[in-house]
Amino acid sequence: MSLPACPACGSEYTYEDGIQYVCPECAHEWNGDAPAEDDDGLVVKDAHGNLLQDGDTITVIKDLKIKGSSSVVKVGTKVKSIRLVEGDHNIDCKIDGVGAMKLKSEFVKKA
């Protein structure tokens, strides 16, 4: 049985320590059953289950009313260079004609 390479540095010299794997070169520890996560541990998926990352381009899949305004972000609006953040509204972005906004990942798809 071969052990997986280190997800942080790619080293093949990993070893098991109880239920975790350890890399002797960079000292990274991870659970072999857990899905891979970003460096900050934030995993954000769009409405279709695609993994989102900082800098991605997304498309709005539902008309979204802007709170405190009569404006609406229309379905099909493309948003470039998103930033992922913690919280309920986990996408921070700037929308042309609207300005800075926070969106929920369940209302967008990766473009």
TrEMBL record:
<feature type="domain" description="Protein YjdM C-terminal">
    <location>
        <begin position="44"/>
        <end position="111"/>
    </location>
</feature>
<protein>
    <recommendedName>
        <fullName>Protein YjdM</fullName>
    </recommendedName>
</protein>
<feature type="domain" description="Protein YjdM N-terminal">
    <location>
        <begin position="2"/>
        <end position="31"/>
    </location>
</feature>
<comment type="similarity">
    <text>Belongs to the YjdM family.</text>
</comment>
<dbReference type="InterPro" id="IPR013988">
    <property type="entry name" value="YjdM_C"/>
</dbReference>
<dbReference type="Pfam" id="PF03831">
    <property type="entry name" value="YjdM"/>
</dbReference>
<dbReference type="InterPro" id="IPR004624">
    <property type="entry name" value="YjdM"/>
</dbReference>
<dbReference type="Pfam" id="PF08274">
    <property type="entry name" value="Zn_Ribbon_YjdM"/>
</dbReference>
<dbReference type="InterPro" id="IPR013987">
    <property type="entry name" value="YjdM_N"/>
</dbReference>
